[in-house]
Protein backbone atom coordinates (compact mmCIF):
# COMPACT_ATOMS: atom_id res chain seq x y z
CA UNK A 1 0.00 0.00 0.00
CA UNK A 2 1.33 3.46 -0.89
CA UNK A 3 0.83 6.02 1.85
CA UNK A 4 1.34 9.70 1.07
CA UNK A 5 1.59 12.35 3.72
CA UNK A 6 2.59 16.00 3.81
CA UNK A 7 4.75 17.69 6.42
CA UNK A 8 3.50 21.21 7.08
CA UNK A 9 6.06 22.34 9.65
CA UNK A 10 9.25 21.25 11.38
CA UNK A 11 7.33 20.02 14.41
CA UNK A 12 6.27 16.72 12.83
CA UNK A 13 7.99 13.54 13.90
CA UNK A 14 7.41 10.21 12.16
CA UNK A 15 8.59 6.98 13.76
CA UNK A 16 8.47 3.76 11.75
CA UNK A 17 9.06 0.39 13.37
CA UNK A 18 9.38 -2.79 11.32
CA UNK A 19 9.31 -6.13 13.09
CA UNK A 20 10.17 -9.31 11.20
CA UNK A 21 9.36 -12.56 12.96
CA UNK A 22 10.47 -15.87 11.50
CA UNK A 23 9.17 -19.09 12.99
CA UNK A 24 10.54 -22.44 11.89
CA UNK A 25 8.83 -25.66 12.95
CA UNK A 26 10.40 -29.02 12.24
CA UNK A 27 8.41 -32.20 12.79
CA UNK A 28 10.06 -35.61 12.49
CA UNK A 29 7.94 -38.75 12.44
CA UNK A 30 9.54 -42.19 12.58
CA UNK A 31 7.49 -45.31 11.94
CA UNK A 32 8.94 -48.77 12.48
CA UNK A 33 7.11 -51.86 11.31
CA UNK A 34 8.34 -55.33 12.17
CA UNK A 35 6.85 -58.40 10.53
CA UNK A 36 7.80 -61.91 11.63
CA UNK A 37 6.81 -64.95 9.61
CA UNK A 38 7.39 -68.45 10.94
CA UNK A 39 6.97 -71.53 8.79
CA UNK A 40 7.18 -74.97 10.34
CA UNK A 41 7.33 -78.23 8.38
CA UNK A 42 6.90 -81.39 10.45
CA UNK A 43 8.02 -84.13 8.06
CA UNK A 44 11.70 -83.45 8.47
CA UNK A 45 11.32 -80.70 11.02
CA UNK A 46 12.23 -77.59 9.12
CA UNK A 47 11.53 -74.26 10.75
CA UNK A 48 12.02 -71.01 8.90
CA UNK A 49 11.66 -67.64 10.56
CA UNK A 50 11.74 -64.45 8.53
CA UNK A 51 11.79 -61.06 10.18
CA UNK A 52 11.32 -57.91 8.13
CA UNK A 53 11.80 -54.48 9.67
CA UNK A 54 10.79 -51.37 7.79
CA UNK A 55 11.64 -47.93 9.13
CA UNK A 56 10.17 -44.82 7.56
CA UNK A 57 11.25 -41.34 8.65
CA UNK A 58 9.36 -38.26 7.50
CA UNK A 59 10.63 -34.77 8.23
CA UNK A 60 8.45 -31.74 7.63
CA UNK A 61 9.83 -28.22 7.96
CA UNK A 62 7.50 -25.21 7.95
CA UNK A 63 8.85 -21.66 7.91
CA UNK A 64 6.54 -18.71 8.51
CA UNK A 65 7.72 -15.12 8.15
CA UNK A 66 5.56 -12.28 9.44
CA UNK A 67 6.41 -8.63 8.78
CA UNK A 68 4.68 -5.94 10.81
CA UNK A 69 5.24 -2.25 10.09
CA UNK A 70 3.96 0.40 12.47
CA UNK A 71 4.21 4.10 11.67
CA UNK A 72 3.45 6.81 14.20
CA UNK A 73 3.29 10.50 13.34
CA UNK A 74 3.27 13.12 16.08
CA UNK A 75 2.59 16.76 15.30
CA UNK A 76 3.26 19.48 17.85
CA UNK A 77 0.81 22.21 16.83
CA UNK A 78 1.41 24.26 19.98
CA UNK A 79 4.86 25.35 18.85
CA UNK A 80 3.52 26.27 15.44
CA UNK A 81 0.71 28.33 16.99
CA UNK A 82 3.16 30.03 19.35
CA UNK A 83 5.43 30.87 16.43
CA UNK A 84 2.48 32.34 14.52
CA UNK A 85 1.48 34.43 17.56
CA UNK A 86 5.04 35.73 17.90
CA UNK A 87 5.12 36.71 14.22
CA UNK A 88 1.78 38.50 14.60
CA UNK A 89 3.00 40.41 17.66
CA UNK A 90 6.22 41.46 15.88
CA UNK A 91 4.25 42.68 12.84
CA UNK A 92 1.76 44.55 15.05
CA UNK A 93 4.58 46.13 17.04
CA UNK A 94 6.34 47.17 13.82
CA UNK A 95 3.09 48.63 12.46
CA UNK A 96 2.55 50.63 15.65
CA UNK A 97 6.14 51.89 15.58
CA UNK A 98 5.85 52.84 11.91
CA UNK A 99 2.69 54.82 12.69
CA UNK A 100 4.39 56.57 15.59
CA UNK A 101 7.44 57.62 13.55
CA UNK A 102 5.32 59.28 10.88
Q: What would you call the shape?
A: rod-shaped
Please work out how many helical segments DSSP would assign: 1
Averaged pLDDT: 76
Estimate what percentage of residues fall within beta strands.
Answer: over 45%
Q: How many β-strands, per DSSP?
A: 2
Summary, kept brief:
The chain is an alpha+beta fold and 102 residues long. It is built from one helix and two strands.
Question: What report would you give on this structure?
Answer:
This protein has 102 residues and is α+β, with helices and mostly antiparallel strands. It has a domain at 18-69. It has one helix and two strands; from the N terminus they run ββα. It has one helix spanning 77-101, and strands at 12-41, 46-75. It has a two-stranded antiparallel sheet. The chain is rod-shaped, with a radius of gyration of 41 Å. Residues 1-8 have low confidence and may be disordered.
